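Re: [ENG-882] Designed sequences occasionally contain unexpected residues at chain ends

Forwarding the minimal case from QA. Structure tokens:
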């Protein structure tokens, strides 16, 4: 997965590329173990420290089970190419870990998942030990496509000290968000900074986070594209106001938004929960640089609040954008060995796995039948950081910790619960929403931008039929 938890860019074109290259069932020749070799496991964790930590976990599995494992670290931006090549060669891995929701759907559309093996793992672990939202988002109807492991959530982070000084309420609604951006915007501090780069998945993720709270969906229950609905037009309008009137100049992306807030030059920004350790000054290559941070590297952590779901006037329930990363067993794998590995990663190996980066690995398996809160309680005490490690509780209030921990409960994603996960995966490659966001950030008409995005998604939807 991406170094700081940005959701995986969809595997554009993977459906066509893989469709003719694989076979179903549990006795094919795709996996290493099925061909007589070790169990081949791909994980999208390619930072050296994370690879080393994962290797320790799979080594412990080998010692316990006797099953040899070949661990392959795959960079997020290379996943599509590598899995396509592997499928063409008839050498797909047995297990894939840390894959995003769009990737799960795309692999499923290509008949690359042994859904029977996945279902057996979930049943063995007990479905009641998972959050229902996580199971729902990794299902296609009644078919379980992956074993949900952990989540990260998108957060609106705000300067609580500036809000308090100005007598402002936390930015939990569209009105409060706009009012705060307007009140706090100055020559020294932008009222808000959010992603606007047109060809960037992070831009779409940031907008989707805002849009979900207003009832803006990509499609409705019948699969009809809804990006030009009143709810979505209002969301584009609000985001356009925030980024065109109260932000900093130029296209903004995952790096610039963080840098602006870390420099003390923004009152609010949107990022994933992976930012929490960095904001506490625990990572040397991404340290806060605000004037107060020179004396106290954790100044921003101590003076920031988070909002997980932003309510719009047209919304009916709290919802927030986030990602669930999962384990899945591929079609053609040695299903017995693969099932054992995934079960281990979700039980004995689970705490060491989420300990790799707790700020972005919030457990969606809360515990065991005997200890229902075991993993959630352990998560709250795990140290975070890279160059320096300490628990999040050393820097953040109980309200912030509770909000992050509860994030998976209200997590939502466009298209998936409406049965349009394949469409979500396909749109990620063309970025129609990110392009629309860029238009409104440049002062474009929200209704026209919404219509253009809707038409582009309808065209993509037709191409999938």
């Amino acid at each position: 997965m991406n170094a700081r938890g940005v959701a995986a860019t969809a595997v554009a074109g993977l459906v066509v590329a893989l469709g003719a290259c694989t076979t179903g069932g549990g006795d094919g020749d795709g996996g290493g173990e099925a061909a007589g070799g070790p169990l081949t496991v791909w994980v999208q964790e390619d930072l050296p420290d994370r690879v080393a930590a994962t290797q320790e976990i799979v080594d412990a599995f080998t010692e316990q089970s006797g099953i040899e494992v070949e661990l392959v670290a795959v960079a997020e931006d290379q996943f599509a190419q590598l899995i396509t090549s592997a499928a063409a060669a008839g050498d797909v891995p047995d297990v894939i870990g840390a894959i995003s929701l769009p990737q799960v759907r795309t692999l499923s559309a290509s008949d690359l998942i042994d859904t029977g093996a996945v279902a057996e793992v979930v049943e063995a672990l007990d479905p009641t030990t998972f959050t229902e939202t996580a199971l729902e988002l990794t299902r296609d109807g009644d078919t379980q496509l992956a074993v949900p492991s952990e989540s990260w959530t998108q957060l609106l982070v705000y300067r609580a000290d500036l809000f308090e000084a100005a007598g402002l309420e936390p930015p939990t609604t569209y009105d409060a968000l706009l009012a705060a951006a307007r009140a706090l915007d100055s020559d020294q501090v932008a009222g808000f900074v959010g992603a606007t780069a047109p060809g960037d998945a992070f831009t779409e993720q940031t907008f989707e986070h805002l849009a979900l709270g207003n009832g803006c969906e990509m499609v409705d229950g019948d699969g009809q594209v809804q990006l030009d609905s009143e709810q979505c037009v209002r969301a584009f309008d609000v985001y356009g106001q925030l980024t065109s009137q109260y932000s900093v100049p130029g296209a903004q992306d995952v790096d610039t938004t963080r840098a602006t807030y870390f420099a003390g030059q923004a009152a609010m920004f949107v990022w994933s929960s992976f930012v929490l350790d960095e904001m506490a000054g625990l990572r040397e290559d991404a340290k806060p640089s605000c004037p107060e941070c020179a004396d106290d590297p954790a100044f921003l952590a101590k003076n920031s609040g988070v909002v997980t779901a932003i309510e719009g006037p047209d919304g009916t329930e709290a919802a927030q954008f986030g990602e669930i990363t999962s384990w899945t067993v591929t079609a053609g794998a040695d299903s017995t060995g693969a099932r054992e590995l995934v079960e281990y990663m979700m039980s004995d190996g689970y705490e060491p796995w989420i300990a790799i980066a707790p700020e972005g690995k919030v457990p969606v398996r809360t515990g065991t039948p005997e200890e229902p809160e075991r993993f959630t309680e352990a998560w709250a005490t795990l140290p975070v950081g890279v160059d320096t490690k300490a628990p999040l509780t050393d820097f953040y209030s109980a309200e912030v910790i509770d909000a992050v921990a509860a994030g998976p409960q209200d997590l939502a994603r466009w298209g998936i619960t409406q049965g349009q996960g394949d469409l979500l995966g396909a749109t990620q490659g063309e970025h129609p929403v990110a392009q629309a966001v860029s238009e409104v950030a440049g002062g474009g008409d929200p209704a026209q931008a919404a219509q253009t995005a809707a038409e582009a998604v309808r065209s993509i939807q037709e191409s999938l039929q």
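QA comment: On inspection the terminal residues look reasonable. Confidence is low (pLDDT under 50) at residues 1-35. Proposing we downgrade this to a documentation issue.
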